[in-house]
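To: structure subgroup
Subject: Chain for Friday's discussion

All,

I'm putting the inputs and outputs inline so they're searchable in the archive.
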Amino acid sequence: MPAQSSLIHSVRDIRAIEQQILPNAQPPLMERAGVAAALEASRLLAARPGPVLVVCGPGNNGGDGFVVARELRRAEREVAVAFAGDPARLPEDAARAHAGFLRAGGIVAAELPAPPENGWALVIDALFGIGLQRPPEGIYAEWIEAINALPAPKLAIDVPSGLDADTGCRPGVCLRASHTATFIALKPGLLTLDGPDCCGDISLHTLGVDAAHGVSAGRRVGRDLFAACLLPRPRNAHKGMYGDVCALGGAAGMTGAALLAARAALWLGAGRVYACLLDDGAPSVDPVHPELMLRPAVRMPEHLRALAVGPGLGISAEAERLLQAAINRDIPLLLDADALNIVSRWPRLANMLKVRRSATLLTPHPAEAGRLLGVTTAEIQADRVAAVIELACTYRAHVALKGCGSLIAAPDGRWFINTTGNPGMASAGMGDVLSGLILSLLAQEWPAEAALLAAVHLHGSAADRLAAAGVGPVGLTAGEIIPAARSLFNDWLHENRA
């Protein structure tokens, strides 16, 4: 049974869970949510004197806010509440919460109050929750902009107002929270696209609800998903146990991409690594890593455990011919970069991919994903979960859709979101390194799904470790990720053995 903290549910699924719970919920879900958010607010306020501003909206998210305000008053915090709606039009539970706050001695203002002399200790956003279907308008948009301009920390209730909880899109003005207290389960929009920039630190409060059901639930990537593969090596080991693999690419002017992929595969433990290059003028040896075996692309070895095609491949007749030959090989195959672009241009190659017997792995960025599905990049980004599932099902492949909150999907429709990584990874060559990490795990006979999940998670975690040590995020290079990933991977092996 997956841990509650790793489950990701769509808004529709959350609503279905709520409908199952609501008729008999004691205490009611709104009461549980408000109390949980108040406890989170109290934690944030522990060392911050001063008044709290709670901004409530016209729906049930506003009701949560009234419960929070009531609980903070009971804890003897000074609380100001702003509410621009009509109390008579509040949903039943929210109206009950509004009345309870007033009975407790609370006062509700119809306008956003001016900040006190020393500022607000905390601003709590309870304007709009997961049900918002359009950009905030009118007074609510003005309030969100005004709150964003305040220097105080901001706690969003369930989801920052203006953020689509399913997609992570922010079609209009959106609150930028420093913290988000979300309920029952994580939502995909909190973890991908604009979600991480809007949510800040996320705390999950399950409210005593078991959300571990429903085949549509996604998972947040963690080591628990691939821990069974983190096995120590026997002392009686030899390189043949860890596979021969090849990174195929490196057309003229782009040999560095193939070398980055090959170096990453080598540093993560593949037994023997080939870099097969299209550039006729490419060197015959890598002076940085002479352990690599460099060959012309036409001399790709026959006996390989896995193959990655795409880093620096370019678009050419030769690249197309090599890609077709690679697809025909009965070994795990990873396609990235121009290999994906060639597939999108030639339906014959796409059809060949769909009937492969061995595992196929695709690692597109949003523009490449759009080409593969015949849609725009904007359409991919408008619903990244749907896009990665469609890619995986269409191509019968394991797919990683790269970006903020990278998404991974399996051919059977299961999906995952990875939350490691930082803006330093928005630099050249990062995708090539990821290809090499995946290739190395495939070489070591990891299943395709575990290899993809682990490599994406490791890739981001290594970047996070470097940033924490002061290496980036600005100026972080792809090559720096490789030794950091090796070090972290060995730590994982040690911790798993312990």
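Points worth raising on Friday:
The chain has a mean pLDDT of 95.
The chain has two domains: 4-220, 223-497.

D.
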